[in-house]
Amino acid sequence: MKKVEAIIRPEQFPNLRSKLEEVGINGLTVSEVAGCGQQGGKQGVFRGTAYEIRLLPKVKVEMVVEEEHVDEICKIIQSTCSTNTVGDGKIFILPIENVIRIRTGETGNEAIL
Ligand SMILES: Nc1ncnc2c1ncn2[C@@H]1O[C@H](COP(=O)(O)OP(=O)(O)OP(=O)(O)O)[C@@H](O)[C@H]1O
Ligand SMILES: [Mg+2]
């Protein structure tokens, strides 16, 4: 099992959500976050203007999925969340040790969906 953690532009989320539903991904956690990447939160560059580091609003989407679904999900994220400009976001993939559905005690892959 893996956790796919995507930091995306907030305005791309509705589109991503409906595409994920189409392929049967229903379990997810969404947070409003703030962050910056290699531009340090700068949205434009003007000669002679001093910038401070800024934090831009982003949405973090976390999905724990079976490993075999990771590639498909990453492709969906890329195709729905790319505007081909800086700040489109990033995907992090983390190992997951176990999942337990609290109600039933099911574990592992049975507890994911
Ligand atoms: N190394 C990182 N660790 C944790 N969060 C990150 C990291 N890089 C980016 N993020 C998060 O992702 C958001 C979007 O990052 P962003 O798309 O600007 O990445 P980037 O590396 O600057 O790429 P680009 O040049 O395409 O903008 C950031 O606001 C931040 O929340
Ligand atoms: Mg950036």
CATH topology name: Alpha-Beta Plaits
The DSSP helix count reads 3
- Report the order of strands and helices: EHEEHEH
The fraction of residues in strands falls at 25-35%
Low-confidence stretches: none
Number of domains: 1
The share of residues in helices is: 10-25%
The Rg value, from CA coordinates, equals: 17 Å
Protein model, in words:
The chain is of the alpha+beta class and 113 residues long. The protein has one domain: 2-Layer Sandwich (Alpha-Beta Plaits). The chain is built from 3 helices and 4 strands. It has helices spanning 13-22, 70-81, 109-112; strands at 2-8, 29-35, 56-65, 89-95. The chain has a 4-stranded antiparallel β-sheet with strand order 2-3-1-4, covered by helices on one side. The longest helix is centred in the last third of the chain and has 12 residues, at 70-81. The protein is elongated. The mean pLDDT is 93. It binds adenosine-5'-triphosphate (ATP) and magnesium ion (MG). Adenosine-5'-triphosphate (ATP) is lined by residues 7, 33, 35-39, 56, 58, 86-90. Pfam families: P-II. This is P-II family nitrogen regulator.
